[in-house]
Amino acid sequence: MVLEDIEMVTNALICGKAPGFDRIDFRMWRAVFIHDREFILDLINICFKFNYFPEHLRNTRVFFLLKDGKYPGLCISYWPVCLVPTSGKITERLFLLQLNKWLDRNNIIHHNQYGFREGKSCDLAIHDLIETIKIRMASEHLALVSLDIKSAFDTMYWPVLF
User: Fold this and answer.
1) DSSP 8-state code for residue 8
2) Per-position pLDDT tens, the chain of length 162
3) Partners of 115 in the beta sheet?
4) Cβ-count burial of 52 within 10 angstroms (0-12 exposed, 13-18 middle, 19+ buried)?
5) Distances from the Cα of 56 to the Cαs of 61, 67, 90, in angstroms?
6) Which site in 7, 24, 79, 131 is 20 to 30 Å from 90, CA atoms measured?
7) What is the spatial distance between Cα 52 and Cα 73, in angstroms, rounded to a whole number?
């Protein structure tokens, strides 16, 4: 981990978001980072080096918010909200940053993967799809199959993937 990574993550933090049950918000962490960058860098690198993620950073408080206009008797009528300690959120984002760098470096994710990718969006996926259709309509047969599976993530049979 390098200072630039931590600086990028701390600069991207949104102040005013709810802190975890530790009640430490992002402004405090940003102030600590500005005051002593090397301390934070050393702390994070030690956690990564020894594969250590303190247990108190893994504790969350979960509660459920009823969606507008939904029947309260159904589980799908609620949004789950997890309050995670802000230091845990920072560490998770740094881990994600390192994981994404490794995935990109090793060409693991297909270039047509748009979801959950930096610099990729639904708009870009639609644009690329339209461009592909325009190019191929003139010279080849073309078919498009599109599926929208309701609650796909919630109903996925996970052993198929792993």
Assistant:
1) H
2) 898 999 898 888 877 777 777 888 888 888 888 899 999 899 899 988 998 888 877 788 888 999 999 999 998 899 998 888 888 888 889 999 999 899 989 999 888 888 888 888 889 999 999 998 888 888 778 888 888 877 777 777 878 876
3) none
4) exposed
5) 12, 30, 14
6) 79
7) 41
Q: What burial class does residue 87 get, using C-beta atoms within 10 Å of its C-beta: 0-12 exposed, 13-18 middle, 19+ buried? A: buried
CA trace torsion 88, 93, 99, 100 (10° rounding): 170
Looking at the DSSP bridge assignments, the partners of residue 65 are 79
CA-closest candidate to residue 7, choices 39, 28, 30, 35:
30
Nearest to 15 by CA among 2, 32, 28: 28
Question: Across-strand partners of 64?
Answer: 80
